Amino acid sequence: MNHIESLFEKLNADNAPGQEKRQNKNDIEIKGESLEGIFVDFSHGDVDAHQPLPESIDYFNEGFSEIGSSQAYTEYRGLSEILTETAEKLSAFTGTNINPEEELIITPGTQGALFLAVGATVTRGDKVAVAEPDYFANRKLVHFFQGELYPVHLDYLNHNEKAGLDLSALEAAFKDGVSTFLFSNPNNPAGVIYSSEEIDRIISLSNQYDVTLIVDQLYSRQLFDQRSYTHAISHPDADREKIITITGPSKTESLSGFRLGTAFGSPVIINRMEQLQAIVSLRASGYNQRVLKSWFSEPDGWMDERILKHQEIRDDILTLFREAGITVRTTEAGSYVFPKFDVLSVDCITFSKILRKQANVVVTPGTEFGPEFTDSIRLNFSQDHQNAVDAVKRIITVAGYYQNEP
Amino acid sequence: MNHIESLFEKLNADNAPGQEKRQNKNDIEIKGESLEGIFVDFSHGDVDAHQPLPESIDYFNEGFSEIGSSQAYTEYRGLSEILTETAEKLSAFTGTNINPEEELIITPGTQGALFLAVGATVTRGDKVAVAEPDYFANRKLVHFFQGELYPVHLDYLNHNEKAGLDLSALEAAFKDGVSTFLFSNPNNPAGVIYSSEEIDRIISLSNQYDVTLIVDQLYSRQLFDQRSYTHAISHPDADREKIITITGPSKTESLSGFRLGTAFGSPVIINRMEQLQAIVSLRASGYNQRVLKSWFSEPDGWMDERILKHQEIRDDILTLFREAGITVRTTEAGSYVFPKFDVLSVDCITFSKILRKQANVVVTPGTEFGPEFTDSIRLNFSQDHQNAVDAVKRIITVAGYYQNEP
What we know:
Two copies of one chain form a homodimer. The termini of chain A are far apart. The first copy, chain A, contains 13 helices and twelve strands. The longest helix of chain A has 22 residues, at about 300-325. By secondary structure, the first copy, chain A, is an alpha/beta fold. In chain A, helix 7 (about 165-175) packs parallel to helix 8. Chain A has two domains: about 5-50 and about 300-400, Aspartate Aminotransferase, domain 1, CATH 3.90.1150; about 55-295, Aspartate Aminotransferase, domain 2 (3-Layer(aba) Sandwich), CATH 3.40.640. Chains A and B meet through helix 1, helix 2, helix 3, helix 5 and helix 6 of A and helix 1, helix 2, helix 3, helix 5 and helix 6 of B.
């Protein structure tokens, strides 16, 4: 295998969320009966069930029809007017002060922001800490930029009032020369929030060991049960030159089809991200950028209602899993549950293929979030409520067909 | 300077087209008078002067309102339905047969396609040939992927019926171990078409030396003076495993604000490009993908009319430059002219800043297309006809203020 083949071996996206249609599942042998039911794709949210704000498409059309050329061809980091408005909103949200000219970039989705942030901080041989489990692309990004991976365990199952990051392991990694720590908060896939004490310690360690923080806060607006959330960037000890925050309207706001993300923080890193964006995709789609005008400008009550509806779906799903004896931590924020099936006789990749064939349900295998999560699957429960409940019942039934002998 | 600083030094986009607003031009000293006139930004086309098809926005709105979730979340390489239609159109256009499932990917603009194609073929230490002059990002992409650059001179000024690539130098580079050759046809910035004999030789050399070809054909629909065009992929000797063609609707069709590109060819490379896209931006914006339905489906006569209008602007601009004694080759395809100012007393970067300050005109410095083009500037003449003519007159007047002493 040559260089490029082994590189792409590590990037393999065959089991990544959204790619299920391209999988071959002819080789899967079924036990028990096939279950009828409305198809549910838990690999991502359903923007038909939870629709974007109607204003979003109006802003797009305004960009196309009224603004025209200057909206089609923006500076690589985004149109100045949109940057200014978005910086104000993000400053208010995070409790900090973001300079729109120097500290903010608009990207093609938060995936685009993650790619640029890692590309702007990591080169060959650099040591990078990532939480495990965490978003499937994080480890791949480190491989792609030829960094050295330092996985740090997140003990999400055995805690309640904190995410459960192994802070001693984090310090050991930092001590060993890690220069960047990349993590999602709320965590994807576990749906847990880092406590203020955890953020405090992460900030303090990053200062002590001169580590850049890349914090993916994609789901930080969707908090359940009146939980509190700590923005790392607004921590009094945060070094603004050493922190990049990433967020966007693709999830709670259902604007994923527009591919919009933002990153803010260190001007040096944001500037590099723009240089990189110039050769990666030039800019986030011009007309699409205008849709950010609807973000953080939702009508009163809209966000509360959206969160409440998701909390209700979450509650029903958690109850079903727990009644069936399947281990799952309560989602504190975001739309993911990450149940652990202790007695499954097949690995999670096979189980996911079985679920697609036998239960008309798509889920994402746990191993996308870390190699050790062979007995877990991730579900995005931003779905039609009843369809989601029915689909989870089918998952539980099928899991029953594939139990280890006691 | 550490690794990442020196890497980003080479990616510097401060003088790249579209970034002029972020430049500091306070340090520019002016000779002669400032010229009044309507602002023209020759760094890109004006989609207000040459508008997209009205149907394009209808397809977007259909994606958002009627198709919904399945259009928002497509497979990384694009929605199957759109891939199928687009493969048919591109097959007819290029005279070949493109398998929509295996040989085609939709990307965020052709920039996205270029990035993925180079990323899928070049790793550290690989030798890559690029034409000079050529598109500004090509050399940066090679630097970014840590390839070794082999520039091959394109003698565009001294030929008429061919582009003027130095085929002996190309063979020497191939002999020296080049594994990828990346070039635009029609050439950006020179606006010239590779002759069928040149394509013939490039194909033959690539077969002989086992070199992958990445051909950026972004402007291949906009041919002037009934010129003929040779698609490398449909050459009878082309090795389908060794060639990637890139194109999209951002230029002639004025759909740049949607960020849509396509790449087609080698299934192995297209597959890698999809794996890479999964960590770069996930996919081209979902709703935007639907706009490809309008591409190659323009009403009868629409494309002829568009080309004719551009040919008329080109003719007036060429006449003005030539009357002023400025060397410029006739644009054979696309919307670029690349005039050479033989007696300018300032370099092209300074001259570009002067033009912005003194003539209310944005142009792109020649050095963006190769380090030796210090006395050339690139203009995209897809502008309002009269405004473009007036702006070129201002450029010529200002050039007169900055002549070398004879």
